[in-house]
Design goal:
Elements (H helix, E strand, L loop, with lengths): L7 E5 L3 H11 L4 E5 L2 H10 L6 E5 L7 H11 L7 E5 L5 H10 L3 E3 L4 H17 L1
Parallel strand pairs: 1-2, 1-3, 3-4, 4-5
Helix pairs in contact: 2-3
């Protein structure tokens, strides 16, 4: 677990409004971190010395996207890969659908079911405990 009492969950999405809603929804249970880009997310992970219990990242964002985050975590923080899930509004290409199918990471469809998001985050945190 992280150095705090509560598990740390990092949400990554380029939509500030969604991040605010996720922060509000999960802050009673988790230490919630949010980032609007992959680079910002990686800075937060580094600031936590890799002590993040769950990550949920939008698969499609400007510049760098969820695929880039998966690659960066695999290189620098491989223990975090099993703690990563993606959010997506749907695959917009064959290549993206193939990535979703082969990444073996949970994928949550937008618009989000907040019950489903809660279950997914709890499962990611449980994966951390099993690691």
């Amino acid at each position: 677990m992280s150095t705090s009492e509560r598990p740390v969950v990092l949400f990554v999405d380029d939509e500030d409004a969604l991040l605010g809603l996720l922060r509000l929804m999960f802050s009673a249970t988790y230490e919630v971190l949010t980032a609007t880009s992959v680079d910002a997310a990686l800075r937060l992970v580094a600031a936590k010395n890799g002590h993040v219990d769950a990550l949920v990242c939008d698969l499609q964002m400007p510049l760098r996207d969820g695929r880039d985050l998966l690659d960066a975590l695999g290189a620098a923080y491989p223990h975090l890969v099993p703690r990563l899930a993606f959010m997506t509004g749907g695959a917009t290409s064959f290549e993206l659908q193939r990535f979703i199918d082969t990444s073996r990471r949970p994928t949550l469809d937008k618009p989000l079911s907040f019950d489903g998001m809660g279950l997914a985050v709890a499962e990611l945190v449980a994966n951390r405990r099993g690691a």
